[in-house]
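Database export, one record per block. Field names are fixed; values are copied verbatim from the stored entry.
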Amino acid sequence: MKLRPYFLVVATLAALGLLVAPQLIISAPREASMGFVYKIFFYHVPSATMTFLGAFVCAWGSVTYLFKGSEKGDQLAVSAAELTVLFGLLTLVTGPLWARKAWGVWWQWDVRLTTTLLLWFIFIAYLFARKYGGPGSRKLAAGLALFGAADVPLIYFSVSIWRTIHPKATVITGIAKSRNGMGTPLLVAFITFTCLFLALLELRLSLERARARVDELHLEAEDAGLVS
């Protein structure tokens, strides 16, 4: 598996961030209304952002595959889809941890929560479609990726369009702009999660490229009569 040069940089930054960010988060002051529990946002919000990023990257790769027949685009799409499922799971786990304290329940069928869960299921369906869809499965999965990416703006703007119990984006903006020690941990958390996403994406892409190369070699071996 051949990794591109930037992998070492983002992997190192991610590793450093995973060491530094928890210390900054622990030392950050408590929020006036939510107390200690608000610190889950330092994990929850970057996870959600990486979920959205993964959905868009998958959609971009799917578009290049559908309209240009790009195998590299398809490799990018499936790699990003798996990360969308991974970070989506982190989002769906960390969210209820906060909700249990804030709302008294683990889950509410709030618009943002429901559409986020829908996004996660869409990309699970994407992976299942690729594996078990038979002929044309990659095109079917690519269509699902576009549908999933279209759900992202709905998730983001849902708290502004409908009445919802989920905190508005202004809460995070307020934390980011605060001068009482909250902004720095959030910034470090975002940088860490972004570098982690890029490092995992490069690892997954290198695996997909290696897998495609193995398939090519197998076909060449069949043509040469070396395997049956």
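Remark 1: The radius of gyration is 20 Å.
Remark 2: The helical segments are 6-27, 41-68, 71-102, 111-132, 137-161, 169-177, 183-223.
End of record.
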